[in-house]
């Protein structure tokens, strides 16, 4: 029965999601987001993940973090960083209505660089801003941009000056975090970096896990829960 063999049940559902059907059919909706069959199909092997999939997954991480024993988590949408870059602080000032960033433990910022996904992680507890790139590129300027954002947010929302010198900014090296060996898995790496970080767990996966992670993410998005 499927209960004794959840893997087979999962495989059936994933195959159905990847199967024939209307591209625009909504397979999951929550967090004011909709994920269509077409979006889910970006989780097929060697496809690039799109904003919808990444944003939905980040929201699943935030939901999980509300449970006992998880660090307090805020995740920005993939549209946050380009908006901040194009319009400065004013353009994103209202993105944190009802959220006190400085009461969070961790803040995730998924970043889309034309054809590549990366992840920036602000650890409010440790005062660190770290950049995770599965192709090993540096993101020092992205870290600086986010520190400036935090300084403005602190002035605006708390009337407090953030002491920049207390903060550590760092791009993780290819020796420190797993690297992708193809041109298509960056989005999955970003989601799984975020998953480990949001549990305060070390990052132990490798490129080999990606095909399984992709299928698991289909199930998690459709069922709106993390396995």
TrEMBL record:
Keyword annotations: Hydrolase, Protease, Thiol protease
Start and end residues of each Ubiquitin-like protease family profile domain: 33-197
Taxonomic superkingdom: Eukaryota
A biological-process GO annotation: protein desumoylation
SUPFAM superfamilies: Cysteine proteinases
One MF term in the entry's GO annotations: deSUMOylase activity
GO cellular component terms, A-Z: nucleus
Keyword set includes Ion transport: no
Residue intervals passing through the bilayer: none
Keyword Protease in annotation: yes
Coiled-coil residues: none
Pfam entry (one): Peptidase_C48
Assigned protein family: Belongs to the peptidase C48 family.
PANTHER family named among the record's database cross-references: SENTRIN-SPECIFIC PROTEASE 2, SENTRIN/SUMO-SPECIFIC PROTEASE
Protein name (database record): SENP2 protease
């Amino acid at each position: 029965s499927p209960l004794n063999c959840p893997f087979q049940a999962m495989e059936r559902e994933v195959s159905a999601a990847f199967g024939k059907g209307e591209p625009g059919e909504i397979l999951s909706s929550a967090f004011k987001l909709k994920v269509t069959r077409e979006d889910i199909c970006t989780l097929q092997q060697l496809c690039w993940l799109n904003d919808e999939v990444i944003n939905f997954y980040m929201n699943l991480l935030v939901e999980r973090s509300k449970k006992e024993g998880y660090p307090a988590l805020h995740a920005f949408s993939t549209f946050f960083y380009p908006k901040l870059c194009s319009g400065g602080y004013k353009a994103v000032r209202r993105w944190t209505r009802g959220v006190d960033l400085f009461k969070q433990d961790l803040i995730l910022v998924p970043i889309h660089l034309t054809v590549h996904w990366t992840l920036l992680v602000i650890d409010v507890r440790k005062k660190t801003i770290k950049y995770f790139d599965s192709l090993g590129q540096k993101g020092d300027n992205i870290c600086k941009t986010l520190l400036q954002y935090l300084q403005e947010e602190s002035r605006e929302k708390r009337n407090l000056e953030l002491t920049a010198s207390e903060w550590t900014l760092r791009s993780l090296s290819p020796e420190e975090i797993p690297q992708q060996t193809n041109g298509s898995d960056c989005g999955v790496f970003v989601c799984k970096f975020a998953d480990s970080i949001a549990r305060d767990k070390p990052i132990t996966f490798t490129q080999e896990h990606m095909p399984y992670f992709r299928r698991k993410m289909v199930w998690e998005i459709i069922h709106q829960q993390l396995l």
